[in-house]
Fold this sequence. Notes:
The protein is an alpha+beta fold. The chain folds into 2 domains: 23-131, Rieske [2Fe-2S] iron-sulphur domain (Rieske Iron-sulfur Protein, 3-layer Sandwich), CATH 2.102.10.10; 148-321, Alpha-Beta Complex (Naphthalene 1,2-dioxygenase Alpha Subunit, Chain A, domain 1), CATH 3.90.380. Helix content is 17%, strand content 33%. The chain has helices at residues 165-173, 175-180, 266-296, 309-320, and strands at residues 23-24, 27-32, 41-46, 49-55, 61-65, 79-81, 84-86, 93-94, 100-102, 118-119, 121-124, 127-131, 151-157, 194-196, 199-208, 212-221, 225-232, 237-247, 250-260, 323-324. Strands 13-19-18-17-16-15-14 form a 7-stranded antiparallel sheet, covered by helices on one side. Strand 15 and strand 16 (212-221) form a beta hairpin. The longest helix has 31 residues, at 266-296. The radius of gyration is 22 Å and the shape is flat. The structure holds FE2/S2 (inorganic) cluster (FES) and fe (ii) ion. The site of FE2/S2 (inorganic) cluster has 8 residues, from loops.
Amino acid sequence: MTITNPMPQIGNKGIPREGEGGFSQCWFPVALSSEVDKGRLVGREFLDGRVVVYRGADGQARVHSAYCRHLGADLSVGDVQGNDVRCAFHNWQYGPDGMCSKIPASSKRIPRQARLFTYPVAETMGLIWAFNGTEPLYDPPAFPTHPVEDLVFQVQETRRWKVDPYMLLTNSMDFQHLRELHGMKMEHDPADIVMEGYQYEYEVEGELPNFGWLHQRVRCFGDNSITLTMTTREGAEVMGAFSGTPVPGGCRGFNVQATTRSDGTPEGDAKTEQILFMSQALMVQLQDEDAPVMDTIRFREDVLIDADRALGKFFRYVRDFPRAHPGDGYIN
Ligand code: FES
Ligand SMILES: [Fe+2]
C-alpha cells in the first residue's frame, strides 16, 4: 500500500546562503572612512574571516587579510609604518600590494609566499569598500543623479542582521511587502525594471506613512547595495543608501544619507541638515519595521503569486550572480 502525503509539496528552499559556492562578487563596505585616520589600523570581520583596514602615510585606505603569514598573528594588533602594516609578533612588514617587505631577523631573500591577500579598495560615500575578487567587476555604488563631489554624506553602521545582504535587498523588489508591511500606498508596481550587468534600476511613486508622497529612483548594485533618490511633493531631493557586508552569522549594515552641498548660508545649512535627517529617519523607520521579520525568517521561495513577479526576477538575478572566494585560506 502506498501512503501519500495529503499536504502539498514545499517549494524551492531558496537561494544558497552566502559562503556556499563562495561569496557574491560585490563591493562590500568594511569600515567607515572616519574610523580609519592616517596611520590607523582596524581589524574587521569579513565574509567567513577577518581583514585589516588601514590608511598609510599616503592617505590611501587598504584592505588585507588579517593573519600574518609567519605564524598567523592578527595584524590588527600591529601598527602602520609608512604605507606598510607591521606585525606585532616578530615585526614582519607588509607593503600596499600585500607582499612582505621586511623581516628584521633575516637578511636573506624574503620568501615569496610571505604575502597577504589584498582586496581591491574604493573609498566613496564616507565608506571604505573592498571588492570580493582580484579585479572589480563593476564600479562602486553611486547616486545616479549627482557626481559624488557635489554631495555631502552622513553614514552610520546599522544593527547586525542575521540574514545575508541579498535578503535585505529582496525588500527593494518586494512590492507586496511595501504595501502590506510598510503601508506604502502605490497605484502600480513598476513595470520597467532595467537589469543590466551587475545592477538594476526602476522608478516608483507612492505615499509612505510619516513621510508623505514621494517619487523614488531606485538603483541597486551587486546584490548588497541600494541607492534611493527620492523627491518629495515639495520638490526636496532626499538621498539614502544601504549596503550590507556578509560576516559570520549574517551581515553588517551601513546606512548613508546624502544631499547636495549647502550654499553656505544659515538657511542652506539648515536645509541640508533637515534633508539628511529625513533620509536617516526614513531608512531607520523601514529597517525597524523589517527587523522582526528578518531576524526570524527561514527563507524559502515557496508559494509565489502574480504579485511576486518582480521578486522572482530578483531571485534569478541573485542566483545567477557570480560568487568566488579568492581570499579563502588567507582571511580565515
Ligand atoms: S607572526 Fe607575524 S611576524 Fe611572526
Ligand atoms: Fe522593507
